[in-house]
Amino acid sequence: MEISSIKDAFDRVAKKQKLCSSKSEETVDQVGREIEQALATLQSPHDPSTQADQKSVLTELKSKLNAIGSLQQLEGPNKELNSSLAKYQKLLEKLLNPDISKAYRNVEFDAHIINQIIASHFYRQGLFDLGDSIINEAGEPNATALRSQFLEMHQVIEAMRSRNLQPALTWVTANREKLIQIGSNLELKVHTLQYVEIVQYGTQPDALKYSRDYLRRFADLYTDDFQKLMGCLLYVRRLEKSPYAELLSPTHWEVTTEELARQFCSLMGQSYENPLNVVFTAGVEGLPTLLKLANVMAAKKQEWQEMKQLPVPVELGKEFQFHSIFVCPVSRDQGSEENPPMLLPCLHVLCKQSIMKLSKNSTRTFKCPYCPAEATVAHCRQVYF
């Protein structure tokens, strides 16, 4: 989006507005001074207040006001301001409300996948009635597989928001091995929340028993955290006045709840970020580039519709990068399945097509462009990021 163009146009309108305001104030002040001077003359005790004198004063005032030309003085700047505002409005409509249909291409979609994505979106949001409606209307019975899993996730999360940790404890215990495999300490975090609740509102024996039953096995792997929790035993029912008062912060509940939702999605094989939101946001961010390209290729509609790859890069934020990207230092082409990155014996990496050109399609050895080492295509190995 041409933010700079909008800013420049806004600055021009703001400048016109200031000039118009200044000119209007100057004209009004000038008219006011002439009227005040005429009033002072009429009210002066040294002048005879005859009807003829009053008439001459008013006549002179009228002549001065006509000379000022207040109406013309006010109309001119206001017309210029209105003209600038009209241009600015047209620019905003052009840049902020474009015809996005120009960027549309006839692309075949799998209707079943689209229906499942939409239903999953509602299930992920906890809107199960809407998700069920989509499934029923689209006739997609297979899409209900995720419903029960997302339902369980929302039940656990809602319980945590009500300070009920039992469903979360049950889930982390049941999925202990899977959480360990992905290096997650979620189970410790959930047990820590429960332990802190016992320390703050229960008794020392209860807290000690809970630490022995559920926290002891974390002692070797998370020594610092375990020692801190054991120190809390000295401040039962007065944790807020202890060196460990920060454990009472609601932030721990919020962070652990988000972590549980993230790991829940991970174990389901689903992304934590809502795919439909990601696609929509990426589309909005890339839309200005696509609209520019569509306008440039307006005369080549057939070529635009049949294009397999965009001729210009669509710059998106880092939050939309889900895999490593390799750009060949020789050809400047981005690596792909057809043109993967290849590791040379000298440990430099080039794309396959560059290696094929250097080796004359595998007919001879070639020198690495970055060092004097020689290699053959057979000695190169594909790299997986």
From TrEMBL:
The keyword Protease does not apply. GO terms for cellular component: cytoplasm; GID complex; nucleus. InterPro entries: CRA_dom (IPR013144), CTLH/CRA (IPR024964), CTLH_C (IPR006595), Fyv10_fam (IPR045098), Rmd5_dRing (IPR037683), ZF_RING_GID (IPR044063), Znf-RING_euk (IPR027370), Znf_RING (IPR001841). Residues 328-371 form the RING-Gid-type domain. A zinc finger (RING-Gid-type) spans 328-371. Its main location: cytoplasm. GO terms for molecular function: ubiquitin protein ligase activity; zinc ion binding. It comes from the Eukaryota. Residues 149-206 form the CTLH domain. GO terms for biological process: proteasome-mediated ubiquitin-dependent protein catabolic process. PANTHER family: GH10162P (PTHR12170:SF3), MACROPHAGE ERYTHROBLAST ATTACHER-RELATED (PTHR12170). This is RING-Gid-type domain-containing protein. It comes from Trifolium subterraneum.
